[in-house]
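Lab notebook page, bench 4
Experiment: in silico fold of construct C2
Operator: M.H.
Input chain length: 149 residues
Purpose: comparison with the prior construct
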Amino acid sequence: MDEEEIKYFVRVRNTDLDGTKAVHIALTGIKGIGPHTSRTITALAAVDPHAILGKLDDESVGRIANAVDTYTEQVPDWMVNRQKDVYTGEVRHLLGTDLTMMNDDDVNRMRKMRSYRGIRHETGQKVRGQRTKSTGRTGTTVGVKRKKD
C-alpha cells in the first residue's frame, strides 16, 4: 500500500485509535486495554501485532473489533479487569467510560459505607498503605529555614 492509503484514525469501540502505530500499541489507546490485553486481542483476532493499524483492511479491523467485544468470553477469568461484579456477580471486562463509571461507583460505595478506604478517598489521603509522614505532601513547603546573620 502507498503512504496515501493509510487511515490515520481507526474507530474501535467508540475510540479513535492512531492508525500510524502498530496494532498492539494502538489498542492501548482504549481505556481498559493495556499491553498484555492488546497482545491477547491481536492473537484472538489472528492479526500481526506489529502491523500498522491504518494499513489493515476493513476485514482485519472488524476481526479486531469483534475480538475486543468478545474478549470476556474468550479468555480465562483471571485475565479480565472485573472478575466478580459486586452487584451481579458476573465476570466482565470493562472498557472506556464503563470502566470510569464503575470505578467511580466503587469509590462512592466505599465512601457511603464509611469504610477505611472510603474515608481515605474522601480526605484525599493515600489509600493503599503508603507512608504519609514525608511523602505526598501538598500545600505549603515544609523544611528548615536557616537563620540569617
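Observations: The longest helix spans residues 97-112. Residues 79-123 form one domain.
Next step: discuss at group meeting.
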